[in-house]
Every structure is written in structure tokens, then in C-alpha cells.
Give the backbone structure.
Amino acid sequence: MKRTTKQLLVSFMTLLLVFVLAACGNNSEEGASTGEKESSKNETRIYKDEKGKEIEVPAEPKRVAMMAATYAGNLLDLGITPVAVNEYPKANKFYGNKLDKAEVVTADSYEKLLELDPDLIITYSDDKNIKKYEEIAPTVTMTYDKYDYMEQHVEIGKMVNKEKEAKSWVKEWKKKAADAREKVKSAIGEDKTFMVMEAYGKDMYVYGKNWGRGTEVIYQALELKAPKKLEEDVFGPGWKAISTEVIPTYAGDYIFVGSGAGNPDNSFMESDVWKELPAVKNGNAIKFDSESFYFNDPISLEKELDIIVEELTKKK
Amino acid sequence: MMNAHQIKRVRVTTITAILLLIAVFIISVATGFASLTPSELFRTIIGQGTPRENLILFEFRLPRIFVAILAGMGLAVSGAILQSITKNPLSDPGILGINAGAGLMVVVYIMFFTVETTSFLYVLPLFALFGGMVTAFVIYIMSYIKGEGVEPTRLVLVGVGLAAALYGATLTLSTRLDMEDYSFMANWMAGRIWGDDWTFVLSLLPWILLLIPYTMFKSNVLNTLNLHENVSVGVGVNVSRERISLIMISVALASASVAVSGGIAFVGLMAPHIARSLVGPRHQVFLPVAALIGGILLLAADTIGRVVLDPSGIPAGIIVTIIGAPYFMYLLAKK
Amino acid sequence: MFKTKTKLIKENKVYSRPAVGTVILLLGFALLLLSIVLAISVGAAKIQFLTVWNAVINYDPTREADRIIMSLRLPRELGAAIVGAAFAVSGAIMQGMTRNPLADPGLLGLNAGASLALACVFAFNTGANYLTVMILSFIGAGIGAMLVFGLGSMSRGGLTPIRITLAGAAVSALLSSLGEGIALYFKLSQDLAFWTAGGVSGTNWAQLKIIVPVVLVGIIVAVMFSRQLTILSFGEEVARGLGQRTLFTKIVLMTVVLILAGAAVSLVGAIAFVGLMVPHIVRFLVGTDYRWIIPCSAIFGSVLMVLADTFARTVNAPYETPVGAVVAMIGVPFFLYLARKGGRKLS
């Protein structure tokens, strides 16, 4: 009897050792690739979230689980490859193979999350599983539309103790945006209007100035204008479902249209209503890949900026 | 009443069912994405586990397992009552529109109330319970005709129709939800055991502990009701009153179960059938067996659903339906 | 032979009212035209009544109103009309064949089968063209129907209405569960729901070119067999006694039902209750002779769908309310009424 217990203990210790070794292996690998120096797991600091709640988080989080769909790119840009993401960022072509090592974890597969042994979990403040996450690792949350896309990046920077890096990206981005702004202005002038839309199911969606899909680049970074009606109706709520019939009312001189998901045929593009829009007639309807443009993190934004500027300037 | 052979058969069946439930329980506890060896498992159970093991066992797996067992039992007994009372061996609480009504209330809740992380755990099951009970009540009223009472066939027909309609309404509302909420909703409807917290075990337990023994206590009434009406009247059972109170118990059991387990159909149909074919129609012996089988079925379905098709798994309700619907058809063809 | 037939018809109280039927048919047609014009003139973009007429007669693509009418609203309303006719006629045929007043493609597993096919299309072949979608919908509806009726006929004691309804419920549960499983696994559940909720919006001429001939042929075949259907609705023994080749008739009619239901689902997704309600209303008006019931059902099914779609479009504009919900709102009380009234006779 005693002997069995001993055997169990030994086997357990071996297992634990393997586990720890494996974890260390991972850590050092990542440390090497990002050029960060090792820090012990015990070191912590206090992160104050948007509601003023103080949470004890690792000083230098290494294994971050990103349960919010839209922030994975922010982490990548800060040099941290999340250990867990949900399925949406995996579909973003802008990330290339950067997320290949990140595991897909759906909202309620806690066990898988636990096995990935995260030291920090980041999610939206309305996630239904926060309680369970908190049992696995320190969990910090933020509300999606509380910050603009630059503040959002800085806030995530604070979460993972890379505020400086985040701020320097913002500075650089502002410079880059100003250059792009000049380029676009000289190519198409100042008075053009823009619309961003997507077909989903059998409805059309029009987006405001902070709802991903390139809107941050178009309306904020490039400071391009929206048609008046669009600005009045859509900028407030952020997005709006419209009938195909009223596309002309919201259409700008340029239309960015998502390839959309959830519709086997994009038949509205075959209709005369679409074909006769001034933007379409003038060749100013620009298609984008919805699954990638959905995001508004630095990596996606820079790619979006490149694509948008190229589309707007290539004619002249 | 029963000869020695029958008594033996009942005893063997009951013990086998208990052993089977324990076996499925152990398998379920031991399977999952995180590995937990039998020795680790044993150590955790006796309170010597690491924090990680404790978390896996006590916070992630056990609550969900208990919810699955309890809900399976509740649904099985609920189905057994319905089948006996309506004298229709094809009755299932799902047919009474309880799933559909509860589902509608779930979507209404998600739509109109902010899903605040802590309170929603407690309020949502109440909404679902309410939805299920109101629906059952409406179906009962709709199939009541003065002078004739509630005729079982009509009850089933009204239930099927109303369920179809409620399902349509749910679909309509759910297209207004955002991606995260919708996915929660769709999974709820498909019967993913979502109540994976001790709170849910505790909120379901009293219903099961009170109502199942009470039903067993009423076994003789159920035996008589299952016979012809005039016989029941002849032996002095107040038919309509007993029937109403038993239907209410059935509805309460099903609603409470569905409220924490999600929309699960066919357990209430299959479990009583299997039990009846094993130990015969006397409620004293067949109700406990039915409850056990219900627990086994739902737990097995959830365990399978949990481990196949990584990362999201398959909702238990879908697995139960894939097994249950053909079984139902077989019964229909055989009858 | 003729004598017996008359006698039988009298016994079964077939009453047909040709005069009423003709009037109803004409009135219904006028009503359909009127409701289509009405439907076209109301909507998110305001359009004058006269403009509608003008656009149809004298289409000028440079005018915005004309474009909206011709490329969005007219195809949409025609789509609604054709779908309504298809559901209503398939419901009428099923009610006659099964002698089940509660028969409806939505309740008998056809719609669930077609939806399962749709889920597969969404999951495995996003680039599928409409014809493929429609053919797969037929196959799906066919599987659903075969299961329900196979099951019903396998069982001892034959196809009682209650048994068919139960078989339909079980088959529907199975097929939609499989569909939901596929949809959840491929993260398509919401896409599918949105697609179904979208109803007839987004119908285009290319789709109409395929579906209109299919549905029209289906309805014409149904009308050609309507006399046999009337006889069949007395019961199989009676029909056989009158020398009808019941198996042949049943196969033809069932094929028509599958084609109609499959075509309708491929355009709008599963919508229940149209096929249930319309034949009942029509039967109340023109009697129990299917020679009148079928054409009248087609017309009134169209009217119902066009009006329901218009209501769905305008009640909460600019959002579109799913048309299936509007139909269910009218259909459920109707179903409950029928179940209450007919429950006794059904078992």
C-alpha cells in the first residue's frame, strides 16, 4: 500500500517536472524570439481596469489568452503571440502565419484554456464566462466601443506592460496617416464622400467611423468624409442595417464593399440599382475581404491603409 | 403480485443501471481536453489534488456532470408521467412545447436585458422555467374542451403546432442578436449543457429531490390512470384532479431541467420506453429505472459531445436527437 | 360504374361550386395584381403609384425609381407570389392525399429536409449557383418526405393523420438537428438564420427565371391530376374501387409536392403554415373539389405571401421583419383552431 502511494507520488513528480520543463521551454523560446528578458512568474503588478477595479497581473505576461475576437492583432503588434485566440482572428489574412502557434479556444472550453496555462486572460467586459476565466488566470476586460482604436491599443499595452511600445506605435501611425492623407488628397481632391458597406444574409449593412472594416482608416486616419445622410444616421449607432433600395441614399462617391460572409451569392451586385450607382459606374466601388478588414488592430490597420491608399491613388 | 422471477429481473436491471450510471460517470470525469490520470483523479477526489486538478474536477467537470445527470432524470420522469397519463407512448416533454417556450424566453432575456455576468446566471434559468411553464399551460388550455376534458391526441397536436410557431418566433428575434449572443442562443437551443456551475446543480436539485419521490409515491395512481378511465373511476381515483396535478409535476420537472440544460428533446421519450421494456409497466419499479436511464443517456451524450470535434464540441441535445429520433420512428413504425 | 361514382361522391359530400369558384378565381387574380402593385409602391424608398405602372411598361434605367422597381421590388414580389403559390398548392395536395387537415410541408419534414440541404450548401460549397441550391433543396425535401411517409406506411394500421403528424415532428427534429449541428460546427448558424429571416428580399431575375417555370409546371400537373386527387381524398379503398391506379397517382402528386416545396424553400428557407392555412380557407369558399381548390390555393397563397411580405417590410421600416414570423403569427391561431375543432376526428 505504502509502496503504491510512493510510486504514485514519484510518477506525479515526474509528470510535474515534465510539465514545468515544457513550460520553461516555451517561455525561453518566446523570450528569445521577442528579445525580452526572463522574468519570474511571481512578480506582479496592479492593473486598474476601466471600472477602476484593481487586478493583480503578472509583471511581464508571457502566455496571454486573447478571448476577445478583435484584439489579437494588438498583442501581435506588441510582440506577444497569444497562446489562445478564438476562431475569428485565425481567418484574418493580414496576420499571415503569426497566429499559427496560437490555439483556437471557444468561449466555453475552459479545460483547453487551462491546459494552455495562460498567465493573463483578456476579454470583452460582457463575456459570459469571466467567472470561469478568473479561476484559471488573472482576467482583465475592456468594453469594445469605449475607446477609439488608438486608445484601445494603448490600453492593451497597459495590460501587458508594454504601454511605451503602444504609444510609440500611435505616434508613428499618426505620422504615417498624415503622409497618406496628403497622397490621397492630391490624387482625388478633398470633397469626395465615402461609404463602407457589407452584404450579410439578405440585408445590407452600412458602417460608421469606428466599426472596423477599414472605417477607422477612411474616416479617422485619412479624415475622409461620409455622405451627410450616412453621417447623421450611422455614425451614432456605429452600424445600420439597410434595405438594398436605399443604398443610393447613403452611397458616396466611393464605396468600399465587403465580400461578405453568409451569402452564397452576392446577387445585389447584379442588379441595376447597384450597377447604376455613380460610384460603380466610375469604377469607384472597391471590394475588400471582410474576414480580414473586420479588425482594427495595428497590423490590420496598416495593411488596410496600404490597400485603401493604393486603391484611391492608382488611377491618377 | 410479482413472482420471484420478476422480482429478480427488476433487481438485476436496477443494479445494472446503477452500475452503468457509475461507469459513465467515471468515464465522463476522466475524459476531457485536460488530461487527468486515474491516480490524479483519485487523489483529487480525496482532497489531495493540486489547484489545477481541483479546478478541472470540481469547477469544470463535476458541476456539468451533475447537471446532466439530474436533468436527464428530470426529463425521464417527466416523460414517463406524460406517457402514462396521455396513454400515448410517444409523448415527450419536448412535444409539449416546453423547450420551445423556454427557448423563446431565453432569447427575450438576452435581447432585452444586458447580460451582466453574475446575475444572468441566476435569472436566465428562471426566465426559461417561466417560459416552459406558461407554454405548457397555454397548450393545456388550448386542448381543453368543455365536457370532454383534455383529450391526449389533441394535446399532442396542439403542442406540435405551438412548438413550431414558438420556434419561428425565436428565430425571428434571434436574428437581431449580435454574434456572441446569437452563438450562445443557438447553442442553448441545440441543447448544449450550459449550466456548468455548482449554482445550477443546487438550483435543480430541490426539484428533483422533491418531485421524483413524490411521483414514485403516486405510482399506484399512475398505474390506474394508465388503465381505462372507467376502471380508474371504478377504483375511486379522482381522475381529473390527479391527472392535472401529475401533469403539473411533469411540466415542472421538464421546465426546471431544460432551464439549466438547454433545449433537450427525446430523453423523456426514450428513457421511459427502455425502462418499460426492461422491467414492465408497473410504475413502482419502472420509474426509478427510467430516471437512471435518463441520467445515463444525457450524461453519455454530453460526454461524447464534449470530446468529439474540437474545439467547440457538439451540443448534447443534437447527439440525443440523432439517437432519439430514429428510436421514435422505430416505435412509431412498430406500434 | 358512373352510378356508383355519383353515389360515392354524394356519400362523401363532395360539393363543388363552379360558379363561386370562377368568381373566386377571377377575384383572387385581381386581388393578386392589386396587392403586387400596392407592394411595389410601398417600401423604404417612396414611389408613386403611377410610377410603378410607368416603370413596368416603359422601363428607363436612367431613372432611379424605375431601377428600384424593376431590379428590386418587382422580382421580390414575384418571388413572394411564386413561393406562396408553391407552398399553398403543396399543402393542398398533401391534405388531400393524406386526408389530414393538418398537413403542411413545414410540419411533415419537407422543409426541415430542404433546410438541411441548405446548411450543407452553406458549409461545403459557398460558390454554389442558384440552380444547384434548388436541386439540393429538392433532394433534401425528398429525403424528409420519404422518411415521413415511409415510416407512416411501414407502420401497422396505416397512415392515420396523427401518426403522420408525429412522424413529421420526429423527422423534422432529426433533420433540423443534423442541420443545426453542421451549422454550429461550421459557425454558420447565424448566417443561415439571417438568410432564412431574409425571406424573399434579394430575389433577382436570374433566380425567377429558374423557379417560375418549375413552379408553374408543378401547378399545372397538380391541376391535371386534381380530379384524381379529389377521388383519392375519399380514401384509398374508395379510389381503388373506382378503378384508380392509386400508386401511380400518389407518386405523381408526391413528386409535385416535393418540387413545389423544394423550390419554395430554396428561395426563402423554411416557412410553415402557408400550406396549412390557404387550402382550408379556399375549401371553405369553393367546396371540397380539388379541381377548384388547387388553382384557388395557388392564387390565394400568392396573395397571402405578397401581403405578408409587404407587411413585414413596412411594419418596422427600415428594418425588415422576417416574413416567416408574420405568417406564423396568422398561422398559429389558425392551427390551434383546427386542432381544437378536428382533434376528435384525427385519431
